[in-house]
Amino acid sequence: MSNNQAAEAAATRFSPDQLNANAQELAVSSVAWLRGHWLDVLIAFGAAAVIVALLHAVRAWGIRICKKSPGITGWGSIIGRAVGRTGNFFIIMVAAKLVIGYASAPPLLEQTVAFLFTIAAVFQGAIWAREIILGFIEKRTESDNYHGETLSTAIGLIRVLVTVALFSIALVVVLSNLGVNVTGLVAGLGVGGIAIGLAAQGIFADLFAALSIIFDKPFRRGDSVSYDNTNGTIDAIGLKSTRIRAFTGEELIISNRNLLDKEITNNTLRTHRRGALAIGVTYQTAPEVCTQIPAILQEIVEANECDFVRCGFTGFGASSVDFELLFDSQGPDYAQFYARRTAIGIAILSKFNAEGIEIAYPTQTTFTADPDGKMIMPYPQVQPVVGVEGTHMVKDAPESDGK
């Protein structure tokens, strides 16, 4: 059957005259059925009543679970809340569908019950799916430190989007079961959705970025983060932008889309902070003393509640023999790391002074030479010094050996 023929058949089926004729036929056949099969009808009604009572008990169980735990604590409470949203119309139609065949009902009555059951089942399925989806979302976000207003707005927006999507699908399914050609409707909805998406792509990009932050949890409110050239604390996560309080005091407002496009370092989730110190000693330091420096530094690091990583020679500098010390301060607390690094630096200075190890600093030595090129000490001759009264005083100086 072509689409045009199906549309004509559906229009004929739902015309006023045809509906009136079907209603009259249903009434007549139902009366005749009740007179001829009254015992079967009573048994069917009894079975239907039992089914309705059982379904009501299941729904009451779901409602009790929701009352005991108002918040979403697990999948049990999510399923309970969904079951508690079961409608009376669906319960009645389930019972009718299950017992209608036993009572030898007229074909038109069976078709009517099947049609109503389809409508009830499709829309009840949409309600259950909505509650499960929203329950899962609330479960993912209920224990997180997000701004309450932002989370409520996001959940409300998600509820609207999920409801519209699910009930649109349910409506299309029902119309399709009625014999209505839904191809044009689906195409129209698709084109309309594309047009709306293109017109508001910037808004939707930031919105979905906000939802990604809420569900994926790269950071939370109160976390210390490093973003691009910015270091600060997350103040608030909105649907359009995120506010970061920089360590220098100012508040930075960054769109969610741009925020997720770059690398973000969440300092709150650090397991430790690593410190590195470059230490140089003078070239006059004895080699056997240099070999003891890593052990000396390890002892200092461990005495200041840090984990020693490694220490070793790194190169010959312009004025020093260079070593590098690496250590870890456990935990994300920067203030604690800062204090421990300071204590380690001062302890190194004290230990080196006590051991006679000189820390190098930039120096320059100037040598002089005789006209023949031999190196001599500066000022090889005794220099006369004029006294207070004009007399000449001679300061003793070591004799030069000409080298």
Give the tags:
single chain; 403 residues; alpha+beta; 5-stranded antiparallel beta sheet; 3-stranded antiparallel beta sheet; 12 helices; 57% helix; 16% strand
Q: Which secondary structure elements does this structure contain, and how are they paired or packed?
A:
Layout: H1 3-13, H2 16-36, H3 38-68, H4 75-84, H5 88-99, H6 107-141, H7 148-177, H8 183-199, H9 201-216, E1 224-227, E2 230-237, E3 241-246, E4 251-255, H10 256-261, E5 264-266, E6 272-281, H11 287-303, E7 307-316, E8 321-330, H12 334-355, E9 368-369, E10 375-376, E11 384-386, E12 392-394
Helix pairs in contact: 3-4, 3-5, 4-6, 5-6, 6-7, 11-12
Structure, explained:
α4 runs antiparallel to α6 and α5 crosses α6. Helix content is 57%, strand content 16%. The longest helix has 35 residues. With 403 residues, the chain is of the alpha+beta class. β11 and β12 form a beta hairpin.
> Nearest-angstrom radius of gyration?
43 Å
Q: How much is the average pLDDT?
A: 77
What strand line-up does the widest sheet have? 4-3-2-1-5
Beta strand count: 12
H/E element order: HHHHHHHHHEEEEHEEHEEHEEEE
Q: Give the terminus-to-terminus CA distance.
A: 117 Å
Helix content: 55-70%
Percent of residues in beta strands? 15-25%
Q: How large is the count of helical segments?
A: 12
From the spread of the alpha carbons, the general shape counts as: elongated
Major sheet characteristics: 5 strands, antiparallel
- What low-confidence regions span 5 or more consecutive residues with pLDDT below 50? 390-403
Main structural class: alpha+beta
